[in-house]
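Researcher: Here's the sequence for the chain we discussed earlier.
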Amino acid sequence: MRPSSKIRAAGWLYLVLAMLFVLGPILVTIAFSFNVDRFSSLPWRGFTLEWYQKMLSNEDILYSLRNSVLLGVCVSLTAVLLGFTGSYGLRHWKSRWKGAYLLASVSPLAVPWTLMGLALLIFFNRINLPMSILTVWISHVVFTAPLALTIIDARMKTIPKSMENAAWDLGASSLQTMVLVILPQTLPAIIAAALLTFTISFDEFIIAWFVCGFDQTLPVYIYSVIRSGVSPTINAIGTVVFCISITLVSVAQVLQRKKY
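Model: Thanks. This is the structure I predict for it:
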C-alpha cells in the first residue's frame, strides 16, 4: 500500500471512530427503543413498537410535546423576524458604533445557559410574571434571535447595494424594495435560521427548567421522568426527538450552502 493510500485509510478510520464515539450513545438509545425487554440490557430479546405506542398514548408526553412544538414555532417566528429586521437595519445604518451594536446584539450567545436561566428566573420574579410557557418563549427568544441575526446578516452582506439603488431609481419605496428585492434574496437564509432556532428551542432544557413553571416542555418532562430510572418509552422519545432535530439541522445546512 502506497503512503497516500495509507494516509487516506487512516483518515477514514479516524472519521469512523469519531462518528462512533459521537453517535454511539444515540445508536444504543435507538436500538433499545425497539427492544421487547423493558430493561435496557443485553441480550436482545426481540423487536417491538410497543414503547412508541405507549409514548403516543401518554397524555403527559403529548402535552409536553405540544408545548415544545408550539414554543419552537413561536420562538422561531419571533427570532427570524427580529433577526431579519435587525440585519436590514444594520445594512443601512451608517455609524461608527455599528460594530459595537452588532457585538452587543450577539453577546447573549456567549452567556452560559445556566447563568442566563438563573438571571431570567430572578428577572421574572422581580416583575411578578408567573412562570409559564410565556416566560420560556421570552427566554428562548433572548438567545435565538442573535443566532438568527448572525445567519441572516451573513447572507444579506452578500447582496449588492446596487440592486436596492436600481429598485429605488425605478420608483420602488423602501418597503417595496425590502419585500421584493431583499427578502427573496435572503429567503433561504431565513428558512435556515427558522429551522435552527426551532431545533434549539425544541431541544433546550437548562433555561426551560428554570422558567417553565408547570408548563413543562418535552426535555423538562424527560428529566423529571428519568430521575426514577430510564424506561424504553424514554428511549422512544429520545429517538423521535433526535430524528426531528437531525432532519431540521440537515435541511438548514443545505439551505445555508445554497448558491445564489
